[in-house]
Amino acid sequence: MATYGDFITLLLVFFVALYKPTARSDDEMRLIMSAFKGSMGMFEGGQTLSKGRLEDMGMTVESLPAQEKGTTLSKAMKIATEIFKPEIKSRKVVVQQDERGITISLVGSDHFAPGSARLTDETRKILTKVGDLLRNLSSFVRIEGHADETPVASGPASERYETNWELASQRSINVLRFLHENEDVDPGKMSAVSYGRYRPVTESPTPEGRALNRRVDIVILSGKEYKRDYKDENLPESRVPGSEWTVP
Questions:
Q1: Tell me: the pLDDT tens digits for 80-92?
Q2: How far apart are CA 160 and CA 153, in angstroms?
Q3: Which residues contact 234 (CB under 8 A, 6 or more apart)?
């Protein structure tokens, strides 16, 4: 019976070998797997990579869903940096990738006037490009609205919001609606959220700094695909009305 430390070492060797299975010949893999045979009770008989689902899964480690997702986002990142190259150069758009996914930020004074959620002509042009990108992706998309610290009372008379929460929320909703209604992006994979004035990208009190904080971030999330297999029969029928607009 091998010690626990020996077992952990063998497991490390096993997964290192699996990381690049195409670089191993059949003889090398048999040699590696022979070290497991009989070393622990659970491996008695050496039934490790026998023909079947385990072998198939192990030998396709490079095409697992998580890795395929990462490849898709990497391609989307390259496309985004290319199609937004003029806007990135003119500092109207910022594209970055982190653990959340890909973030396309509409920043600067060309997008939203102080206290306003109306989409400018420049914003609509950029969102047309965003729609072309999102339309072919299967990822969830979260549209995040932001505001600066200026009181909303300073906004246009035709747009009055109670707080910066509502203002930032309306900005994200307007972007979502444009992508759905004008660019035919599937609404089932989009959501709109508001962060009010509480996630600024700069603390600068200058007009330029405030313009950077008045923004919308379009986040292509790196999580699972948006499609779900919901079944109506699992819903509590007595608590779900036929329509939100039904009048008792």
A1: 999 999 999 999 9
A2: 7
A3: none
What is the C-alpha end-to-end distance of the chain, expressed in Å?
73
Question: Which of 42-46, 83-87, 229-233 shows the highest mean pLDDT?
Answer: 83-87
Q: What is the pLDDT of residue 91?
A: 92
Number of domains within the chain: 2
Query: CB–CB of 216/172 below 8 Å?
Result: yes
Helix (H) or strand (E) holding 104: strand 101-106
On whether residue 80 sits in a domain, the answer given is yes
Task: State mean pLDDT over 148-156.
Answer: 77
The alpha-helical segments, DSSP class H, found in 103-189 are 121-134, 164-181
**167-204 pLDDT, tens digit each:** 999 999 999 999 999 999 999 999 999 999 999 999 88
* DSSP string computed for 78-99: HHHHHHTHHHHHTTSEEEEEET
Read off the pTM.
0.66
- Return d(Cα 183, Cα 171) in angstroms, integer: 17
Helix axes 4-19, 26-34, angle to 10 degrees: 170
Q: Which residue has the tokens 């079947």?
A: 52
Residue 238 lies in a domain: no
Model confidence at 59: pLDDT above 50: no
| CA distance linking residue 213 with residue 144, whole number of Å | 12
Has residue 21 been placed in a domain?
A: yes
- Residue type for 100, please? R
d(CA 221, CA 12) in angstroms, rounded, equals 31
